[in-house]
Each structure stands twice: as C-alpha cells, then as structure tokens.
C-alpha cells in the first residue's frame, strides 16, 4: 500500500503504492517511547532527526516504527498523524485523495499550524528535553 524511496531534496520519503481516499487510514505504527532522561543523549544521535515528541506525564520522545519516521514535512500536507498515547501508536490518515506514487506528506507541527519547525540547520533542536 505504501513504499519508501528517495525524495528530491528531502532524503527518503513515503509514497502511495495505490490511491488513498480522504480520511482513509494509511498506516498505524507502533512507537518506541524513550524516557525524558534519555532525550539529551538521543539529540546527539541520528535518531533525533526521526523522532516525535511524546507527551504523557512528562515530555518524552518516540521513534515510530514501520514507515512512521520517514514521512516528510509540508505546510500543505496531504496526510495527518495522530499520536495514540495509550496504545503507543501513531496513525497516519489521508486528508484528501492521494494518488498512486504521490509522496505522502505530513505537517510536523501537527494540524495545519504554520509556526516555525523545531529544527535548525537540518538538525532537530529540542527545547523541551
């Protein structure tokens, strides 16, 4: 249903292996949640470029499995993600029809916010950890 390949200027990206309709589930992936105490260590590794903020009782970070950590950002996304804290999963859902072989893009800020992304010079910058 989905695949990854090189995405011009973005490294790897996730692409539709078939057409998805608006509101259709694209992928539900488990995550590995890292304790807040490990954030400082993780931000010095490559993992930091692929993680999601995971806020439960404290601010943590999570690495999405499946293709979850490979979706690229757009302020005009064609998909959204929802963090499911209780089950430690993330759901990726189409916002509109996505054509076969089209790159699936999410807004890293969540929703359709246009605020500054939380990375600098192609490296994540975590102010909350």
Protein described:
The protein has about 130 residues and is mostly beta strands. The protein has a single domain, classed as Beta Complex (Beta-clip-like). Helix content is about 5%, strand content about 45%. It contains 1 helix and 11 strands, in the order βββαββββββββ. The chain starts with a strand and ends in a 5-residue tail after the last strand.
CATH fold assignment: Beta-clip-like
Q: How many strands?
A: 11
CATH superfamily: SET domain
- The top-level CATH class is Mainly Beta
N-to-C order of helices and strands: EEEHEEEEEEEE
**C-alpha Rg (nearest Å):** 14 Å
Average pLDDT for all residues:
85
- Strand content is 35-45%
Structural class: mainly beta
Whole-Å distance between the termini?
Answer: 35 Å
Summarize the structure.
The protein has 129 residues and is mostly beta strands. The chain has a single domain (2-124), classed as Beta-clip-like, CATH 2.170.270. It has one helix at 39-42; strands at residues 2-7, 11-16, 25-34, 51-55, 59-64, 72-73, 79-84, 89-94, 103-106, 119-120, 123-124.
Features:
single chain, 129 residues, mainly beta, Beta-clip-like, 1 helix, 3% helix, globular, disordered C terminus
Topology of this protein?
Layout lengths: L1 E6 L3 E6 L8 E10 L4 H4 L8 E5 L3 E6 L7 E2 L5 E6 L4 E6 L8 E4 L12 E2 L2 E2 L5
Parallel strand pairs: 6-9
Antiparallel strand pairs: 1-2, 2-9, 3-5, 3-8, 4-5, 7-8, 10-11
């Amino acid at each position: 249903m989905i695949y990854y390949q090189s995405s011009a200027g973005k490294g790897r990206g996730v692409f539709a292996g078939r057409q998805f309709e608006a509101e259709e589930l694209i992928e539900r992936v488990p995550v590995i949640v890292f304790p807040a105490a490990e954030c400082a260590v993780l931000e010095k590794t490559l993992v930091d470029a692929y993680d999601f903020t995971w806020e439960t009782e404290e601010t943590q970070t999570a690495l999405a499995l499946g293709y979850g950590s490979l979706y690229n950002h757009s302020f005009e996304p064609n998909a959204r993600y929802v963090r499911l804290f209780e089950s430690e999963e993330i759901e990726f859902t189409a916002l509109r029809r996505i054509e076969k072989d089209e790159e699936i893009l999410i807004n890293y800020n969540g929703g359709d916010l246009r605020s500054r992304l939380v990375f600098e010079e192609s490296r994540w910058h975590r102010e909350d950890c």
